[in-house]
Amino acid sequence: MVLLETPLAELGRSAPDFELLGVDGRNWRLHNCVGERGLLVMFICNHCPYVKAIQTKLIRDTLALSALGVGSVAIMPNDAEAYPDDSFANMQRIAQDYQYPFPYLYDETQAVAKAYGAICTPDFFGYNAELKLQYRGRLDASRKDASDMTLERELFSAMQTVAETGIGPQQQIPSMGCSIKWK
Description:
The chain has one domain: Glutaredoxin, CATH 3.40.30.
């Protein structure tokens, strides 16, 4: 496992379109995921300890963002042949076990992760209603251990600001996690 931090965001960059298979058997496009006030694109996987540590927070925060008009989507970019824990069948199981309130999509070719510039799991991209990047930071100060539910909700607060004003915060702390497992 290689620990990486996300680079500085190219704020204002447009969200790349995609069409990916979801764990529900449906093909999803970018426009299917957007809320009226924005979109959170999350690159996650099944095996990364940094993602495992924040599962319940992802659910809590994406449900709260949905109530604010911000849609959410999770994309799994890892090479599932080399990392079987990240297989499509395991994606389906994880989504069911946690009752994901957002689409969980498989980026089998890794083209979408490359288009977004994703480098680790988790990697968060927060867009306003015009699908212009406003946030690329961490969920909170969690690491790979059991996550403290009382930590400041940095991602949620940032996306709440985006939903209300269309602009993200000036201060953004990079996300950190396991490197994407490229083919």
